[in-house]
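Study both lines:
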Amino acid sequence: MAGLVFAFVAGSIIIGGIKSIGKVTEKLVPLMALIYTFSCLFIIISNYDLLPQTVLSIFSSAFNIDASVGGLLGSLIAGVKRAVFSNESGIGSAPIAYAAAKSSNYLNTGFMSLLSPVVDTIFVCSMTAFVIIITGVGQNSDGIQGVELTSRAFESVFSWFPTILAIAITLFALSALITWSYYGLRCWTYLFGMSRSSRFSYKIIFLSFTVIGTSMNLESVINFSDSMIFAMSIPNIIGLYFLASKVKKDIKKIE
């Protein structure tokens, strides 16, 4: 049922094309970010006396002997996978959207795109970590992780906070759906042409997999996503090395 609802809402947006996607995301993304950010800040400020202890806990856990020696490789692999999944840095997806931006200076557009990982990972994800640690939920997780752990941290402050979290996550999920639908559409039309039937067939396939994905085991979905993101990163990183000299020349021109 959730998959059908998401498919219907996402379908009504993506069928309208890039302008429709842009109109929705320019309102949706700031809204979901504000809801989540203010909720996190409220919890952190409410427990401001525990802030020094929380910061110390983060750094001591990150740089202790066990983490720096025994668990270095495993932590590095897991951390990179989650970081890339979070902000998509280096996999070549975001440039598909930024390429459609109407700007007279493509270098400025490129530099602006660098803010996305900062906001997403440095601010939003760090606040999530602070909320989990500062509420003490991280030490008594009972084997739960991910959004369930975050939800319990929110619930420890006010019983109705998980509802706000659920709204924010729903907005995150919807924005991710419509954004990735556009990424896929650009690649699909490059391979199969810009005809109306080609675009429509892609959208039907995409929305079908939206329903299928919600009925699958979460671990299977995450593992599949990690594999596909890794597959995307290989050709993109190779391309970055080939294009680095061109970017360097363009930057020198404006200096």
Notes: The radius of gyration is 20 Å.
